[in-house]
Amino acid sequence: MQQKWKRWSVSSRKWLWIIVVVGIIAALPVVYDRLQTEKSSKTVEFVFDYRDLVEVASYRANPQTYIAEQLVRLKDAGVQSMAIYESTLDDLRKARRLMLWGATDIANLTETVIPENENYTYVLFSSPENNTALSPLIREAFSSLGIATKDWTFRGQQGLIIETPLEDATLKPLQPDPFTLEMLHDQGFNIVPRLVDSLTYNEASVEKLLNRYEELGVKRILFEGESVKGYTDDEDLNSVTQFADLLKQHGMGIAAIENIKKQQKGFNKLAYLLDYNVTRLYSLSEGDSSLSPEVIADRFALATKDRNIRMIYLNTIPARDTTKAQITDSLDNLITSLSEPGGAVEQIQDNGFNLGQATAFEVVDSSFQRYFKLIAVVGAVALVALMISYFIPLLTLPAFVLGLLGGAGLMVLKPDLFAQALALAAAISAPTVATVLAIRKINENGPPLRSNALTYVVMSPQRRLVHSLVLYVKTALISLSAVPFVIALLNNITYSLVLDQFRGVSLLHIAPIGLVALYVLLYRGEFAFNKTGKLLRTPITLSWVIAAGILGILGMYYISRTGNGGSVSSLEMSFRTFLENTVGVRPRNKEFLLAHPLFILGAFLAYKYRNAAFIMIIAVIGQLSMVDTFAHIHSPALISLIRGLLGLGLGLILGVIAIIIWQMAEGCWKRWSPLLKR
């Protein structure tokens, strides 16, 4: 009965392959929808932090003149927008709108005794115009907090007394400086407000602020701090929903900052309520703004092309330069990185983007997409069952049936978890199955377990090369069969915006290697359990321990390189930049420099030397890496495809070169080794 069940299981593979093919075909319309979505946003917006500009200007002899000059330069360089924060009294002081004193300072200034029971803040406006515009704004802000204000004059200048300590008063957020908003708008800059969530949410105040922003043409909001506007009071006031309704009424979206340590609280909820009117933003830190213009330009071009970034945020900071005995900043460096020939603006435009206000992706979701996804789910389950069949054939049919039943339940209860789990399983299965089939093909045509010179004839080098190249292409196609499933299962705008992330990247990088190693060790020749017993009875030697230690170190290094947080040396970064600038899309180094050439060389050798099949344990890295490229959903699918094909093409060339070198070395060894034995 067991043998009969095993035959049924093995014969069922062809039906599972048919189901996989049908699933791939069904997933293609979903892939097309994603491609259309990715084409819907082609505008890149450069945003400069205006607060940084004011900070830098405060160290100049003529701050306002300096600001005016730099605004012209920034606009000419391609910066279209300015980020404006909700002001504080300290911001207005730096902008020379007013002066501030505490109780001790004002006592010294007026040559009076400091009051024993008053610790107030004293504000003096620098002009009547500033008093007219800013006094109502300050009074309103502090009044809403229950802090009293009253008029005050000093030497003919008008001011205010705010009945709270200076340290407290300078922390309170105010509405943005109206003079700055008007000036930047008149100069043609778009305004990108940055809002904080430090005070109790006041819908009337927020609506008034958004009304003003709408008049200025604001289309997108940024947040400062750990949470979005209204998050702190959301449990009591439902304020995030109120804020989302106001943003929708005013036609405004939000921006998701890339690579922040932790997503701002309430951001995902707000994004959902806004129907994902969200764009991704890359922020160049103050420290990185001093990098070479070429490096900065390449970063910006790569971010927009490879990671769907549509807003680029520029920062600068004043710094003490003791070698020049002056205060410096990185503005000149940033402007050079944007405007020079071959700079960021030119590269971005050459890549097919326009400069302007960033727009969100228009999600394309065809009416039949859900039905295509269901068929793709069945195909993905069949692919996983196929992988299991090559290790435990008896579980082929149970794995497929249980996969469908379990998947159906999980799809109803936790659809997001199900989609990620099945996408991960399919991503692991395809390169594993592809490499296992390659090993089985080599076993069929390569040297048998106990070679017999009378019955077995080694293929000619030319024939081995042809077989290796054909096997290379077939294996790559089978590995890439996981891609439509991964795209279809994870085709959600939340993944493109990195509001959700594909989990299990480390497992994807480890599992196929372990499974292929298991197959090479246990499933070639003798029955697996017999070979397992022999391995368990083999004595452990010092060389085994050393080899295990080396493999462990190499494995840790390999894992450190996986995922978005993988560490990269400066030399490799330079090499990556060279590839990017040379071929347009950078193929992955581990694919075309290591794994793909090893696959071709390993297959070539394994057709003659049986144990060369162990090379496939490393070669599978290239197969899984191609699939992993598409698991980075925030990268355009077309870019991922080009990257994979370039890796395959370059890997093929290097693989053929490796074979030529091996043949030459083998010929030299055959010729000279007899002489060495004399």
Description of the structure:
- Strands 1-2-7-8-9-10-11 form a seven-stranded parallel barrel.
- The two termini are 62 Å apart.
- It has 678 residues and is of the alpha/beta class.
- The chain is elongated and about 110 Å long.
- The mean pLDDT is 88.
Summarize the structure.
Helix content is 60%, strand content 10%. It is an alpha/beta fold and 678 residues long.
Report the sheet-strand fraction.
5-15%
Q: Strand order, biggest sheet?
A: 1-2-7-8-9-10-11
**What is the tally of beta strands?**
14
Share in helix: 55-70%
The average pLDDT value, as a whole number, equals: 88
How would you describe the shape?
A: elongated
Task: Supply Rg.
Answer: 32 Å
- N/C terminus separation: 62 Å
Low-confidence stretches: none
Q: Report the total helices.
A: 29
> Which structural category fits the helices and strands?
alpha/beta
Q: State the major sheet.
A: 7 strands, parallel, barrel
